[in-house]
Design the sequence.
C-alpha cells in the first residue's frame, strides 16, 4: 500500500479514543473495592451492555480482518461462521447452560468444573485456559503491530522525527500494552466490558459508511452480483451437498456437525472469554438474556465484516488515475500510480508479497497469490478520505485492543481464583486477591508481549499455536454437556475423557491431510490414511472426532465409577435443579420467546441468501 | 456500578461527530472526496454520529438521575432487576 496520508483530524480522533478509554478506567477505579468488583464487575451490569460485550469479545481485529479475508476468498458462504457457527450455540448457552454457570455461584468456568466434577478436571482446564489466553492476547498484539507496519500509518511521523521505521513495530506493541494494562489495572472486568461495548459501536461507526460507499462504487447489489468471480459467491448454500462443489470444500454434514455443533458450541458455551461477560450481570435472568441479546447484532454482522471483503473483490483493480483541478487559473494534473502489488491483485485485494524479499508470491500455475487479509484495510484506505479514515482506523485499533483485553481479564480471573487461590495461597484476605488480580494483569500483559516477540522470530508460531488450541478446545463441549445434563458423569470420567479427546484430535490430525498440502503443520505427520478436500473440512472433522471420543470415554469411565451424591449436584445438573422462576414475566419477555424469534430470523436469513 | 456507560460513550461519539462535521464543512468541495465518490463522507457521517452520541448522552444522563433517586438494591439476594 503506497500512500497513507493521515492528517491531524485522523490523529485527533484516535487520540480522543485513547483519552476516553483511559478516562473510563480512571472513572471506574473508585468502584473497585473488592475482588468481586474487579474480577466480576460486582455482578451488577445491565444485560444489554454485557450482551454487546459478549459478541465484541469475539470481534477482535483478527476476526474482523479474517472474516473480510474469507469473504473475499469464499464469498457469502463465510456467513456460515455466524449463522450456523454462532447463533444456535448462543441460544443454547442462554436458555440451557447459563442457569448453571450463574446459579452455581462459580466465579469462573474452571471453578464450575470443580463444583460439578473434581479438583483435577478444574486444574487441567484452568491451566490450559490460562496458557491459551496469554498466547491469544500476544497474537493479537503481534497482528496489530504488523498491520500498523503494513499500512504505513506511522511512517510519516517517524520519518519526520528522524527515527528508524523498524521502531514502529516496537512502538505499536508498547503503546497497546500500556493502554490495555492501564484500563484493566484500573477498572478490571468492568473496564474491559465497557471498552468492548465502545468497540462494538466504533466498528459500526467505522464500517457502515465503508459498506455504503463500497456498494455505491460497484453499482449496488446488482452491480456486486455482476462483478463477482463466479455466481455462487453470493449464495451461502450453493453446492453444499458435496465437498467438491463449493468453495469451502466441506459437505453439509461436516459443516453442521463440525462447525455448527462441536466447534461453535465448544466456543460459545464453554469459553470463559465470552462467558465472563454474561456472568457480570445483576441476575440470573439477565445472564440468560445476555447471549440472546448478543445474537441479534451477531446475525447482521456479516453485512459489516464479510460484505467489505466481497466488495473489495468486486471493485475495479486500481489503474493509474489522473485527477484534474483548477487552482488560481492553472490546471493541475495529479496522477496516482498503483503499486505493483495493487496492480497485480484482484479488485482491491492486493497480491501477496514475500515478507523477506518483498517479491510477489506466485502459485504453482504462475498466477500471483492474493493477500486476502488486506481486503478490509485496503477498502478503508481506498474509499475513506482523511477524517473518516481516522474513525475507520480507530475502529480497527479498538478491536485489536479489546480482543487483548478480554483475554487478559479472563487470564487474571482464572489465575487468581483457580490457580493462585486454590493451589498457591489459600485463605488470604480479599484485599490480597484484589492486589494479586492487578499484578496478574501486569504479568499477563508482559507474557503477551513475549509471545508477540516470539512470533516475529518463528514464522509458523501463530499457525502452530492455533493448531494446539484446537486440540485442547475441540473435546471440551462433551464434558460440559455430560456434566450439566447427565447426573451419572463422574470426575474421573470427565478428566480421562478430556485427555482422550485431545489425544484423538492429535491422532486425527497426524493421520489425515488436506489435498495439495504438504505433510507437517497441515497434518499427516504420522501417516496419511485419509485426505480431505480442504483444510477447513479437516479441521471440522478433527473436532468431530475429538468430541465423540470424549463423549464416549466419559460415559464409559463414569459407568465404572460412583457418581457424586445427588444432594451435591443441585444447581449443577439439569434434572436436579429447579426451573428458573419466570412467573412474574409476561410470555413475550421470557428468554424462550426471544430464542424462538432468533431462530426464525436466522432461518429467514439463510433462506434469503441460500 | 455507578457509572452509566452511555454518558462517556455518548460524549465520545458527540466529539467525534463534531470533529467530522466541522472538518466536513471546512473541506466542502475538496479534492479529498474523489476517494469517496465525491460524497462528503465526513460531513454526512459526522452529523449521524453527532445525533447518535447526543442521544446516547441524554439517555445516559436520564438513567443516571433515575438510578441516583432510587435506593440501592440488594443485588445478591436474587433480587430481579430489569435491564436498562
Sequence:
Amino acid at each position: 500500500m503506497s500512500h497513507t496520508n493521515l492528517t491531524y483530524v485522523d490523529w485527533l480522533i484516535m487520540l480522543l479514543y485513547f483519552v476516553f478509554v483511559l478516562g473510563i478506567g480512571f472513572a471506574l477505579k473508585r468502584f473497585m473495592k473488592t475482588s468481586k468488583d474487579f474480577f466480576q464487575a460486582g455482578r451488577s451490569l445491565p444485560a444489554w451492555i454485557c450482551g454487546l460485550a459478549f459478541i465484541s469479545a469475539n470481534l477482535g481485529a483478527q476476526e474482523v480482518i479474517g472474516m473480510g479475508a474469507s469473504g473475499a476468498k469464499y464469498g457469502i458462504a463465510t456467513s456460515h461462521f455466524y449463522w450456523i457457527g454462532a447463533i444456535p450455540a448462543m441460544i443454547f448457552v442462554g436458555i440451557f447452560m447459563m442457569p448453571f454457570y450463574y446459579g452455581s455461584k462459580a466465579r469462573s468456568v474452571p471453578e464450575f468444573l470443580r463444583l460439578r466434577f473434581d479438583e483435577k478436571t478444574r486444574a487441567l482446564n484452568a491451566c490450559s485456559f490460562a496458557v491459551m489466553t496469554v498466547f491469544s492476547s500476544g497474537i493479537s498484539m503481534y497482528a496489530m503491530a504488523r498491520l500498523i507496519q503494513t499500512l504505513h500509518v506511522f511512517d510519516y511521523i517517524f520519518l519526520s522525527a528522524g527515527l528508524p521505521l523498524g521502531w514502529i513495530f516496537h512502538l505499536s506493541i508498547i503503546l497497546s500494552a500500556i493502554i490495555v494494562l492501564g484500563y484493566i489495572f484500573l477498572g478490571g472486568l468492568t473496564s474491559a466490558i465497557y471498552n468492548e461495548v465502545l468497540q462494538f459501536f466504533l466498528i459500526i461507526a467505522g464500517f457502515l459508511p465503508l459498506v455504503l460507499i463500497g456498494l455505491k462504487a460497484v453499482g449496488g447489489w446488482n452491480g456486486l452480483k455482476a462483478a463477482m468471480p463466479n455466481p455462487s459467491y453470493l449464495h451461502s448454500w450453493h453446492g453444499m451437498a458435496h465437498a467438491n462443489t463449493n468453495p469451502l470444500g466441506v459437505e453439509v454434514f461436516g459443516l453442521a456437525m463440525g462447525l455448527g455443533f462441536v466447534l461453535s458450541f465448544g466456543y460459545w458455551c464453554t469459553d470463559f472469554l465470552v462467558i465472563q461477560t454474561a456472568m457480570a450481570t445483576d441476575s440470573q435472568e439477565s445472564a440468560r438474556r445476555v447471549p440472546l441479546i448478543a445474537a441479534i447484532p451477531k446475525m447482521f454482522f456479516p453485512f459489516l465484516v464479510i460484505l467489505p471483503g466481497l466488495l473489495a473483490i468486486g471493485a475495479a483493480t486500481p489503474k493509474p488515475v489522473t485527477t484534474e483541478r483548477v487552482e488560481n487559473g492553472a490546471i493541475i494534473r495529479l496522477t496516482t500510480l498503483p503499486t505493483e502489488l495493487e496492480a497485480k491483485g484482484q479488485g482491491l485485494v492486493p497480491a501477496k508479497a514475500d515478507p523477506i524479499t518483498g517479491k510477489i508470491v506466485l502459485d504453482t500455475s504462475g498466477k500471483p497469490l492474493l493477500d486476502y487479509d488486506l481486503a478490509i484495510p485496503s477498502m478503508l484506505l481506498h474509499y475513506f478520505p482523511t477524517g473518516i479514515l481516522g474513525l475507520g482506523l480507530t475502529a480497527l485499533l479498538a478491536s485489536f485492543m479489546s480482543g487483548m483485553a478480554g483475554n487478559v481479564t479472563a487470564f487474571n480471573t482464572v489465575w487468581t481464583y483457580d490457580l493462585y487461590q486454590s493451589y498457591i495461597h489459600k485463605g488470604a484476605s480479599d484485599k490480597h486477591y484484589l492486589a494479586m488480580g492487578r499484578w496478574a494483569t501486569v504479568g499477563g500483559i508482559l507474557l503477551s508481549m513475549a509471545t508477540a516477540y516470539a512470533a516475529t522470530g518463528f514464522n509458523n508460531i501463530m499457525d502452530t499455536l492455533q493448531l494446539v488450541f484446537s486440540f485442547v478446545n475441540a473435546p471440551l463441549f462433551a464434558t460440559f454437556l455430560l456434566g450439566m445434563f447427565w447426573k451419572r458423569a463422574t470426575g474421573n470420567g470427565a478428566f480421562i475423557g478430556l485427555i482422550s479427546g485431545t489425544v484423538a484430535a492429535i491422532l486425527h490430525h497426524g493421520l489425515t491431510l488436506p489435498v495439495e498440502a504438504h505433510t507437517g503443520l497441515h497434518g499427516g505427520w504420522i501417516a496419511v490414511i485419509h485426505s480431505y478436500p480442504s483444510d477447513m473440512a479437516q479441521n471440522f472433522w478433527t473436532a468431530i472426532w475429538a468430541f465423540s471420543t470424549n463423549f464416549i470415554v466419559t460415559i464409559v469411565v463414569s459407568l465404572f465409577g460412583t457418581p457424586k451424591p445427588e444432594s451435591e449436584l443441585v444447581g449443577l445438573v439439569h434434572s436436579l435443579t429447579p426451573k428458573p422462576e419466570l412467573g412474574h414475566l409476561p410470555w413475550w419477555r421470557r428468554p424462550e420467546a426471544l430464542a424462538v424469534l432468533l431462530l426464525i430470523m436466522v432461518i429467514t436469513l439463510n433462506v434469503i441468501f441460500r | 456500578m455507578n457509572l452509566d456507560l452511555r454518558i462517556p460513550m455518548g460524549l465520545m461519539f458527540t466529539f467525534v461527530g463534531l470533529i467530522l462535521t466541522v472538518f466536513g464543512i471546512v473541506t466542502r468541495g475538496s479534492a479529498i472526496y474523489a476517494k469517496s465518490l465525491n460524497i462528503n463522507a465526513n460531513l454526512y457521517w459526522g452529523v449521524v454520529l453527532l445525533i447518535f452520541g447526543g442521544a446516547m448522552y441524554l439517555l445516559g444522563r436520564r438513567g443516571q438521575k433515575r438510578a441516583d433517586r432510587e435506593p440501592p438494591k440488594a443485588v445478591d439476594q436474587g433480587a430481579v432487576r430489569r435491564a436498562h
